[in-house]
TrEMBL record:
Name the UniProt record assigns to this protein: YbaK/EbsC family protein
Start and end residues of each YbaK/aminoacyl-tRNA synthetase-associated domain: 65-169
InterPro entries linked: YbaK/aa-tRNA-synt-asso_dom_sf (IPR036754), YbaK/aa-tRNA-synth-assoc-dom (IPR007214)
Superkingdom of origin: Bacteria
Organismal lineage: Bacteria, Bacillati, Actinomycetota, Actinomycetes, Kitasatosporales
Amino acid sequence: MGTPIGDFDEARPAPDCLDRLVAPVADAVRAWRGTVPAERLLYVDTDPAIADTAVFVEHHGRDLLDASANCVVVAGKRGGDTTLAGCVVLSSTRVDVNGAVRKQLGARKASFAPMDTATGETGMEYGGITPIGLPRHWPLLVDAAVVDTEWVLIGSGRRRGKLIVPGKTFAELPGAVVLEGLGVSPG
């Protein structure tokens, strides 16, 4: 099967690749109930050595630069309480942690979660975290530009492999809140 974006040898429906996904992502695909059928969530096998965006798009197609998204885990703190959340923005932007995230979480302070917290709480590999399969009770903040992108390349839960999914899928994930301005230009 060809891919709707990027230059990949093969894309397979994610339900046919459950053995290549970490448990939380495989469980989410198995239990999928979105308006986009699970078969439209595509898995592509990739080299983990080129997982970082700049190298990845150079190898698999420049069109991916505008169609790639990153998922990061943030921690919002207020008093003694900490709220973990997922944030999804296009790769050409960065998460507005101190503005949009802090405001949305009602936090006094917000920051990127430490790597061991992000991987330990998600069951995913650092550099491959995906919103599909995040803990259901977490808020999932999604930049509107991601939802408006026809096809989006995102991590698969591991550094090896990526998912290609319709952008509108992200608005239907558990805990999803679509925000304008979550992703801001770097610099």
